Amino acid sequence: MIKILFMLIFFSITVVIAHFWHTTHLYLKEVLKESMMKVVIFIIMSLMVMVGCSSESSIESKLSQTNGIQNSKADKPLSEMIVPVKNIDITQSHISIEKNNNSTSFLFSNPNDTTTHRVPFVYEALNNGEVIVLYSPDQTDLDIQQQSIDKNGIATGVIVLDSSSETLFIEAFEKLLNSKGILYAEPNYQVKQEHALVVERKNLTTQWALEQIEAQKAWQISQGAGVVVAIIDTGVSSQHEDLRTQLWQNEGEQPNGIDDDNNGLLDAINGYDFVQMNSISDDENGHGTHCAGIVAANEENGVGIIGIAPQSSVMAIKVLDKNGDGDTLSIYQGVMYALENGADILSISLGGEGFSYLEYLAFHAANRADVAVIVAAGNEGVNIDGVGNKSYPASFAFENIISVGASDPESRLVSWSNYGTQSV
Predict the structure, then answer these.
(1) Could you report the per-residue pLDDT of 49-59, keeping only the tens digit for each?
(2) Cβ distance 78 to 133 under 8 Å?
(3) pLDDT of residue 153
């Protein structure tokens, strides 16, 4: 943790955020030798995380409604959804609803989490009324289509509530929390990607940001050899000319239709797709591939761009669909997968307004594992320190999270960049 604290303090002094076309950059002058590799990757992440534009997510469902609870799973295949977080039993988590005048808040707590979280309910961020549930399948009276069941007999799934109005959703959610066999439930909020512009020529005059951060000096320290960067995004193109040799390889898996590493995910060679729940984490959008290119684009093939750490490898974790839309459940799964498989750095260029306790626990696990997380501050042009302007995961208060805003080539904050003295 001392290493991470040093890098965070040093980073805050030396960061230079730039690039008019929605990328940000860091300038690093001196580091401890033992921290060199990760510091170089910190530069990488800041080049990629702050990029703009957004859209809303959607997952279609075919449901029958009863008492506000539409008994279904939502049309999304889910496997081992809830990965245990060290020292925290998620089934012991508690959520209560607080109503005050015209506002509603949720209170999250867990006997093994020293922090109690009181956060506003964000109706506008609901993902079509979806709610994540942990339950005892032999006790519940609800007709939930089972998604997965762990070794302790706890099932997880997604149920859809009536979200035609905020009042109706809260009423249905209260009924769900009080239903027999339900151990835990929380809204499955929307998240969105942050777009970026790809530089197309492989030279430092075109990639002016590399000159600004003095990348060539960083390369004398390290080019990222041995570092695994998890790109938690829209996936990564496995056939991209700049990236096909840069993909992380899961040594515990073989492409044989067998779950060789016994984690419930078949043939996860380069990463995993938590949108369609399969091992094909290729990019149908382009955003994740762009981010991966900024990290690790091959320097020796004479085409494309130069990655800031061309000797690093990228773990392709797909949590956003072809439209750049996703949800907090997929983010939780993607982060936990990256941690379980030894990622050194997490790059997450997305965000959402709604607080998810499951998502919080995933980043809590990353913090305890001393894994650095670089996230986008967001592009709404607001102060995300404010109560009503939160953007997660940027607004999580963990010491391993670096939230990056955006500036123009003169290092001036651009109008659309989020900001905040505590959160950015």
Answers:
(1) 433 333 322 22
(2) no
(3) 77
Measured in whole angstroms, the distance separating CA 66 from the mean position of its chain's CA atoms is 33
What is the DSSP secondary-structure string of 17-79? ---TTT---B------GGGHHHHHHHHHHHHHS---------------EETTEE-S--S---S
**CB within 8 A of 314, min separation 6: which ones?**
228, 229, 230, 231, 236, 243, 246, 247, 248, 292, 295, 296
Distance between CA atoms of 299 and 304, rounded to whole angstroms? 9
Instruction: Give pLDDT tens digits for 195-207.
Output: 554 434 345 557 7
pTM of the model: 0.79
Distances from the Cα of 44 to the Cαs of 47, 50, 92, in angstroms?
5, 12, 38
- Going from the C-alpha of 165 to that of each of 101, 122, 182, 386, the distances in angstroms are 16, 12, 23, 25
315 and 288 Cβ atoms separated by less than 8 Å = no
Q: In sequence order, which residues have a C-beta less than 8 Å from that of residue 332 and are 6 or more positions away? A: 82, 356, 358, 359, 361, 362
Token match 């899961």: residue?
A: 250
Where does the pLDDT of residue 161 fall: very low under 50, low under 70, confident under 90, or very high at 90 and above? very high
Reading the block at residue 251, the tokens are 């040594």
pLDDT in tens, 178-200: 999 999 999 999 999 875 544 34
Residue whose C-alpha is closest to residue 361's, from 393, 386, 317: 393
